[in-house]
């Protein structure tokens, strides 16, 4: 038996849209209609996760910098108070001068130097840059002097 090509339809459709009548939605797999709507969503989610991770890293770095600056300021105040107490035999001005010198070397500004008898109270300040949030002032206070004897 011979077939005529007059009544036979081609399985190819114009424009390359073959296979759509079988429920494949152009991807060659049946039932993949939801994949055609979600194309690239994993890339967007990955980019958002990367941005969140970078923001968290920057935040933790800045907080760590502020904490380290607080420790440096406290160390500067402690050393300045000890230096001032060591120079008190030469007078109050010599004690505060020694405290200011130590503060300058440790890149902290001397805010207050109070001397009462043999006790020295020192307050220092250090500026810390916090990135896009400007800068922050860190203050630390230390006291040095003789220990009261218990009788």
Give a verbal description of the structure.
With 151 residues, the protein is α+β, with helices and mostly antiparallel strands. The relative contact order is 0.11. The chain is 43% helix and 19% strand. The longest helix has 46 residues, at 41-86. The model has no long low-confidence stretch (mean pLDDT 81). Helix 2 packs antiparallel against helix 3 (92-105). It has one domain (33-144). A three-stranded antiparallel beta sheet has the order 1-2-3, covered by helices on one side. It has helices spanning 33-37, 41-86, 92-105, and strands at 109-116, 119-129, 135-144.
Write the layout of secondary structure elements.
Blueprint (H helix, E strand, L loop, with lengths): L32 H5 L3 H46 L5 H14 L3 E8 L2 E11 L5 E10 L7
Keywords:
single chain; 151 residues; alpha+beta; 3-stranded antiparallel beta sheet; 3 helices; rod-shaped
Radius of gyration using CA atoms only: 38 Å
Count all strands and give the number. Answer: 3
Global geometry? rod-shaped
User: In what order do the strands lie side by side in the largest sheet?
Assistant: 1-2-3
Q: Summarize the amount of helix as a percent range.
A: 40-55%
Span between termini: 128 Å
Q: What fraction of the residues are assigned to beta strands by DSSP?
A: 15-25%
User: From the structure provided, what is the oligomeric state, counting identical versus distinct chains?
Assistant: single chain
Number of helices: 3
The overall pLDDT, averaged over residues, is 81
Poorly predicted ranges (pLDDT <50, ≥5 residues)?
Answer: none
Number of domains: 1
The string of secondary-structure elements, in order, is HHHEEE
Largest sheet report: 3 strands, antiparallel
